[in-house]
Amino acid sequence: MQVKIYKKSEDIKWSRAYKNSSGLDIYPYLNEKLILLPGEYKLINTGLFLEIPEGFEGQLRSRSGLALNGVIVLNSPATIDSNYRGELKILLVNLGINPFMVENQKLAIAQLTFNSIIFPEIEIVNSLNNLTPTERNTKGFGSSDYDLS
After folding, report:
1. Max Cα distance, the chain (Å)
2. What is the CA radius of gyration of the chain?
3. Which residues of the chain have pLDDT under 50?
4. Is residue 44 within 8 Å of 94, Cβ to Cβ?
5. Would you say 30 and 78 are in contact if contact means Cβ atoms under 8 Å apart?
6. Which domains does the chain show, CATH number per domain?
7. CA-CA distance, 39 to 56, in Å (whole number)?
């Protein structure tokens, strides 16, 4: 698989921390510093455009070092479909107690990974073969851990 990356400007960077790192570190592309106040979220430009082959997707994820301070990708993992050709943008939220400064190309704010996609055939049916509860239960949302009744 090969992913093509177009950079809006030569000074835009992305990096892979180590040879076998699963994700690419993605940096903000800003005209000026941005302060993300506690509880605030903003859509951050990266200046990157991707061409992901059909059958694959990109996923934007939070960086653990930032998450430790409450700064995360709000819709993590964010899906980038193979047919999307717009600028890669990151919805960043500050759930911490301190303001967080986002500066152009200073600190990576997200990780980008790539995954293969399975396209199952979907069949609409009137019933399923077995809807009896299992040991996992049927209540959803942590149903294997909690009694939600």
Report:
1. 58
2. 19
3. none
4. no
5. no
6. 23-113 (2.70.40.10)
7. 33
